[in-house]
Amino acid sequence: MLEKLGVESIRLDLPFRLNHVNCFMAESENGWTIIDAGLNNSETREFWDEQIGNRRIETIFITHYHPDHFGYAGGLQEKTGAQLRMSKIDAELGSVSWKPEFMETMPNQYSASGVPVEMAKKMVQNTVNFQQLVNPLPKIDHYLVEGERIQIGRYEYEVIHTPGHSDGMVCFYNKEKNVLFSADHILPKITPNISYWFHGQENPLALYLASLEKIKQLNADFVIPSHGKPFYGANERIVELIKHHEARLDETKEVLEAPSTVFQICERLFKRSLTVHEMRFAVGETLAHLEFLRHSGECVRNRDQNAWIYERN
Predict the structure, then answer these.
(1) Does the reported pTM lie above 0.90?
(2) Omega before 136 cis (within 30°)?
(3) DSSP string over 6-42
């Protein structure tokens, strides 16, 4: 199907448990288009050097600001001279999130989440380590907006804003072939991480569930995700993802049997051993589920000395 669409899938390795990201290349009349860029590390740079060769890259689309998609955007733009396009929301988040000024706020945020001091230091350092993997930052030539039409390979696609996994993430949909580039919004085997990262929208899970319902209206047939293999049947997968989060919310309420910090609840929800990197995501995901419950009126949050305490209503 990708060949019929005029799209090449580019699998880039990642140094995490989630061990790859799918980027894409497609040729149009005016040159080549790239979707997402990977991390800015030596392996990615060498891979793109080989992949691009003598091809003229016209446009780079970035689906969202997370490092495995956004990291080499600036470097790839400098190398190719291509125009770079992404949403304004995530362009701003991509700029702010990796600056020292934001990094300096993180110890207090983890303290407020009840994370032990030594663990918090490791989590902050893990985040700081990504700075070199996302620089240089790209120059945004155009902000993608809802409903905009863009050319990818042989077909035209509509830009669809799907906040949740990130506040400004976009997917691309072609009605003629009923094809969706789903980025990290819908993945075939794993559930996208929905976290609150101490900036942006406070209730990302509510945004994510609303975005799933929005995409469900398309009833897309063929889905091209950023992790895992393309698959058929978007709506079947959407139903599974919604059920997963409903079950996770129920589980969060169950473990909130007594007033607790975010970290205490996180430890009850994630029972396996986690790396420092994985713990960052686990805390963020726990916080997102707690904030969903708080905004729904099912729990409350109060300050106790330095930490936020969540309690069931």
Answers:
(1) yes
(2) yes
(3) TEEEEEEE-SSSS-EEEEEEEEETTEEEEE----SSH
